[in-house]
Design a protein that fits this description.
By secondary structure, the chain is α/β, with parallel strands linked by helices. The protein has six helices and twelve strands. Strands 1, 4, 5, 6, 7, 8, 9 and 10 form an eight-stranded mixed beta sheet that branches. It has a two-stranded antiparallel ribbon with strand order 2-3. The longest helix has 20 residues.
Amino acid sequence: MKVINFADTPSVVSQYMSELRDVNIQGDMMRFRRNLERIGEIIAYEISKTIAYDTVPVETPLGTSMCHRLSTPLVLGTIFRAGLPFHQGFLKYFDSAENAFVSAYRKYKEGHDEFDIYIEYIASPRLENKTLILADPMLATGSSMELSYRALLTKGVPAATHLAAVIASRKAVDFVAEHFPEDTTLWVGAIDDEINAHSYIVPGLGDAGDLAYGIKE
């Protein structure tokens, strides 16, 4: 698996990442969502350099220009709920892409830090001969991403798969490398070395869903 870690090279992504992590800024939910969206836009642009295009004649008012147009059929997949603003960033750039949605959540065992992942909802087009971009802001253990991918495979096997995250743990990167096809590419804003006993990324940024949409009951 190929891993593209944006933290390896300082860029404007570094600015957005610092704001997402900053407890003094996180209280602004609109800004938090927008920064997730911005990082999605940037990753979408970088992915756009790796996919196929056709060269087609385009008539202008003064003549004909040979232009490149996207020929790769795309499906943008996301995991509810924190994935929604991140997904929107991809959709702003790949505005003609089809979309897939998966509801995956942790259910903790009473009195324990252990949990199971439950998939309760999936809506997806067929995936054969298409490129799947599966996005989830927080890649803590990799389990939700892997189970969501397995759920999407009921709609067919994509020709290529890109995974996108804002922050991943080192453990999760190793996990997805083991459980996804070898030619998968992971695009990530930063990789943190630790997860705590509750399986939250450390230092991470907290609960992305709560910070984007408010604390859930």
